[in-house]
Amino acid sequence: MTGIVVLGSTNMDLVAYVAHAPKRGETVTGREFRTIPGGKGANQAVAAARAARSGGDVAMIGAVGSDDFGVRLRQTLVSSGVDTEHLRTAEGPSGTAHIVVDHEGGNAIVVIPGANGTVTSLTPGDEARIAAADSLLLQLELPLTAVLDGAEAARRHGVRTVLTPAPAQPLPPELLAVTDLLVPNEHEAAILAGVADPHIAAEALLLQVPEVVITLGAAGCLYASRETEPFAVPAPRVRAVDTTAAGDTFVGALAVALGEGRPMQQALTWASTAAALCVQRHGASTSMPYRTEIDATETGAS
Ligand code: RIB
To answer: What is the reported pTM?
Structure first.
């Protein structure tokens, strides 16, 4: 069984599909509007639960609001098999993400934290749930105090911490000190390391964390650790219609594969396959593949 806990955000994604994203001062007419459950934390939880063997153990710690969005956000997690016992309901609005997706599948996102902003620390129950896991997945859409609390709790209990440093922002050294695996995209890695070249950025980040995976979109990913030589893993060539949550899908599947004891290269290849399936569909929780699809695609059966 793979024990994964996600400490992170839940957002209702309010998505406008357009030919081109509007520039400042411009109004454009879009093609379609959808409300889709998302949020970086919830996305990673859903991706992990779908990638896990049946009966996999994935739990979500965070908060939804007391509005209708909150009901739907919780329901999406539950129906994907995520344990929501530690997902609080906070009085007020749920988090929302206002997303514009263009004709190439690229996106621009504004997040309004809502209920996510109320999660400032862990409860003793949250810590006990983390202590029972193999890995804790973290992102930066909750207040940093909670992210740090969670990572420190995981470290106390010998639980592997996997941090997605998104949305990009400078990080306190004490958070990096309790991070085992850092998974930035190219842009986030450049901000954290102060250098654009991903190879050099990875080397610089290894001064702060023992393992780094830099995701490079269609170019795959780059793995570096203090123990081994760095290596690249290519991504399957696909036509992307919407890249929303591709990074979250990658991390959820990667955590499952590592939890099953797969070697890093194999785990990264499997996670890249999951992300490639995600970008061929629209939305966040609507685009994450199930284990059978990932396996079938990887072996070329579909
Ligand atoms: O990583 C994708 C997610 O970022 C979206 O689902 C949106 O909610 C934003 O948080």
So the answer is: 0.96
Edge-first strand order for the sheet with 107-112 is: 32-38, 11-17, 95-101, 107-112
Q: Are 233 and 223 in contact (CB under 8 A)?
A: yes
Ligand 1 center–CA 30 separation, angstroms: 20
Q: At what angle do helices 40-51 and 264-278 cross, to 10 degrees?
A: 110
The answer to whether residues 70 and 122 touch, using CB atoms and an 8 Å cutoff, is no
State whether residue 264 is helix, strand or coil.
helix
If you measure from the C-alpha of residue 3 to the centroid of ligand 1, how many angstroms do you get, rounded to a whole number? 23
Nearest to 85 by CA among 56, 115, 59, 67: 59
- Ligand 1, pocket-test mutation among 6, 10, 11, 140, most atoms within 8 A of CB: 11
pLDDT for res 154: 98
Q: Count CB atoms within 10 A of the CB of residue 119.
A: 28
Known catalytic residue at 248? yes
The rounded average pLDDT for each run of 10 residues, N- to C-terminus, in the chain (302 residues) is 89 97 95 97 98 90 98 97 98 98 92 98 97 98 98 98 95 97 97 96 98 97 97 96 95 97 97 97 95 91 47
Give the pLDDT confidence score for residue 54 in this predicted structure. Answer: 82
CA pair distance 254, 272, nearest whole angstrom: 8
In whole angstroms, how far apart are CA 272 and each of 164, 173, 192, 254? 16, 29, 23, 8
Sequence-distant (≥ 6) Cβ neighbours of residue 145 within 8 angstroms: 120, 121
**Each residue's pLDDT tens digit, 122-168:** 999 999 999 999 999 999 999 999 999 999 999 999 999 999 999 99
Domains of the chain: 4-23+32-301 (3.40.1190.20)
C-beta 275 within 6 A of ligand 1: no
